[in-house]
UniProtKB/TrEMBL annotation:
Ranges where the DUF2241 domain occurs: 6-74
Pfam family, one: ACT_7
SUPFAM superfamilies hit by this protein: ACT-like
Highest classification ranks of the organism: Bacteria, Pseudomonadati, Pseudomonadota, Alphaproteobacteria, Hyphomicrobiales
The protein's name in its UniProt record: Uncharacterized protein
InterPro entries, per database record: ACT-like_dom_sf, CASTOR_ACT_dom, DUF2241
Domain of life: Bacteria
Residue span(s) of domain CASTOR ACT: 81-129
Gene3D superfamilies found in the cross-reference section: VC0802-like (3.30.2130.10)
Organism: Rhizobium altiplani
Length: 138
């Protein structure tokens, strides 16, 4: 059975169900195609940009490959099946976190949005997003 994707902003927010995933991740970049091929199968995500290939790797794998691991992130999955045509979820999440001075990197995948925040701020970020979901449901 296929889940129905949600487009309505209020419905996305009230149904986002943020979950803090175990592990730490590092955003990396390389222009070395061999390193990218080596890291690719282990990457949570990758994106080719003009300046190089951006990768999101587990902190351990990034360290093994010699990447800088000074800015580890935690991942919060927004478990609502947000539509690719939905409007406002990313803005609301980023704004709620920015209001508390929490930087975030948003990655939208086909089914869910993923919020990457600094390790030390992950628990607070989750608390803020749960509160946002609660107030959106009222």
């Amino acid at each position: 059975m296929t889940k129905q994707s949600v487009k309505d902003t209020q419905a996305m927010l009230s149904g986002m169900t943020p979950v803090l995933v175990a592990g730490e991740f590092v955003f990396c970049v390389t222009s070395d195609e061999d390193v990218a091929r080596l890291a690719g199968p282990d990457a949570l995500a990758w994106f080719r940009e003009q300046e190089g290939i951006s990768l999101i790797l587990s902190r351990g794998r990034a360290a093994e490959l010699g990447f800088n691991c000074d800015a580890p992130m935690r991942r919060i999955v927004l478990e609502v099946f947000s539509s690719l045509e939905g409007v406002g979820l990313t803005a609301a999440v980023a704004s709620a976190l920015a209001a508390r001075s929490i930087p975030c990197n948003m990655v939208a995948a086909y089914h869910h949005d993923h919020v990457f925040v600094p390790v030390a701020m992950a628990d607070l970020a989750l608390e803020i997003l749960l509160k946002l979901q609660e107030t959106s449901s009222a």
